Amino acid sequence: MSNIYTYSKPRTIAVLGTGLIGAPVARNLQKHSFAVRVWNRTRIKAEALASSGVEVFNSPREAVDGADIIITLLKDGPAVLDAMESAAPSLSKGAIWIQMSTVGIIAIDELEAFAKQRELKFFDAPVQGTRQPAEQGQLVILASGSTEERDNIQSVFDAIGKRTIWVSEKVGASSRLKLALNSWAFALTHGIAESLGIAESLGVDPALVVDVVKGGPMDSGYFQLKAASILMNDYTPSFSIDNAVKDANLVVEAAEQAGIRADVAAAGLQRFRRALAAGHGDKDMAASGLVSEQSNE
User: Fold this and answer.
1) What's the pTM value of the predicted model, to 2 decimals?
2) Which residues, at least 6 apart from 248, have a Cβ–Cβ distance to it below 8 Å?
3) What is the phi/psi pair of residue 234, to 5°?
4) Pair 138, 161: CB distance under 8 Å
5) With left for phi above 0 and alpha for psi between -120 and 50, is residue 8 left, alpha or beta?
6) Using CA of residue 108, residue 112, residue 113, residue 114, what is the dihedral sign?
7) What SS3 state is found at 167?
8) What CATH number should be reported for the domain whose range is 12-171?
9) What angle, 0 to 180 degrees and rounded to 10, lies between the N-to-C axes of helices 241-258 and 173-201?
10) Cystine design at 119: which of 93, 136, 155, 273 (Cβ 3.0–4.6 Å)?
11) How do residues 16-60 score in pLDDT, each as one tens digit?
C-alpha cells in the first residue's frame, strides 16, 4: 500500500456501483468539481457517465487507484466485500471509505472489519431516497463514524444530498436506522397498493381513494407519487422489487435477531416475493400490488 494521505479537502472519488443510485451520485459529484472514477460490474451501465467527464474503469482495483475517497453503492454486503477485496491491492492506507449500500447488521460489521484490516477510515452512510432524489441531489445521508474526518467528507454529502444526519460515532448505527426506515417505506408502499387494489376489486374507481386522501392528514408526497404510478400502470423502477426483497429480508432478519416480532415487515416480504416470482423483479416496488389474488398457502 502507498503512503498515508495528508489532504485537507479530498477531491478524487471512486464510486463502485453505478446503478439507480450510484450513477446519479457520480454525476452530481462530478458537477461539484470532484474528480470521479467509477466501476460497475456491468461496464455498459457505467459508460453513459463518460459523457459527464467521469472516468470509467474495468475493475475496482483500477477505479480506486489514487482515490482519496471510495464510495460503495452496490446491491448487498457480499457484493461490496467482493468489490473491495478486488480493489485491495490499490487501496491506500488512510483513504476514506464511505459505505452507502444497504447491507444489514451482519454485513456492516464484516465490512468494518475489512476496513480496519486495511487501515481505511470507514463510514457507515446509507442513504434515504430513491432514483429521483438521487438525480436531483436530494438524498438524505444517514452517517455514522469518527468525528475526525467529518469536515473532509461533508462536502461529498452536500454534493449528493439535501441533508446529512450524523447518527452516531459508532459504525453500524446508520445501517440499523436504515432498516427501520425501510420498514416504514415498505409498509407505506404496500398500504397504497393494497388500498387501490381493494377499491378496484370492489367496483370503486381507485382514483377516488386518492381524491379522498388528498390534502388530508393521511396525504404525503410519497402517497401521491406511488398512487399516481399505480393508477397509470407505470412501474418504471425508482426502487425495484428485486432490491425490495433483499432489503425487506434484512429488516425481518434484524428484527428476529433483536427478538421482536415484525409482523407487517414479514407480510410485506411475502408480497414482494410473490411479485418477484411472478416476473416483476425489475419493476418498481409498487408493483407488489400486481399479485393480489387470494392464496391457499
Assistant:
1) 0.91
2) 182, 186, 265, 268, 269, 272
3) -110, 105
4) yes
5) alpha
6) positive
7) strand
8) 3.40.50.720
9) 120
10) 93
11) 999 999 999 999 999 999 999 999 999 999 999 999 999 999 999
Interatomic CA distance for residues 77 and 247, integer angstroms: 11
Work out whether the CA dihedral 78, 84, 88, 93 comes out positive or negative: negative
Amino acid at 134: A
Per-residue pLDDT band for 293 (boundaries 50, 70, 90) equals low
Residues 6+ apart with CB under 8 A from 177: 142, 167
List the domain boundaries for the chain.
Answer: 12-171, 176-290
What type of residue is 70? I
**What cell was used for 145?**
463514524
Q: DSSP 3-state assignment of 43?
A: helix
Q: For residue 225, which amino acid is it? A: L
Burial class (CB within 10 angstroms; exposed 0-12, middle 13-18, buried 19+) of 56: buried
| Contact predicate 192/48, CB 8 Å | no
